[in-house]
Specification:
mainly alpha; 75 residues; single chain; 4 helices
């Protein structure tokens, strides 16, 4: 059950093929060089908000934010 949840979360953040590869190799992907895109983001006020909300509410908000932030990367 916990692995299923981790797999589902991972597949929302990275392409399905890469998520499956990471899970199959337990994160031990072979040495290779690739061109990648990395997005760093600081959500203003997020720490204070996370302290006020239940963990489930916080994850729902952050999942929505990630959906918006990640979409342009795949264009």
């Amino acid at each position: 059950p916990a692995l299923d949840t981790a797999a589902q979360r991972l597949q929302r953040l990275v392409p399905k093929e890469f998520a499956e590869r990471l899970l199959a190799t337990r994160g031990q992907v072979g040495k290779e060089r690739r061109m990648v895109t990395i997005l760093f983001s600081d959500v203003k006020g997020s720490t204070a908000m996370a302290e006020r909300l239940d963990p489930e509410e916080w994850m729902e908000i952050m999942d929505g934010a990630f959906d918006v932030l990640i979409e342009p990367i795949y264009r």
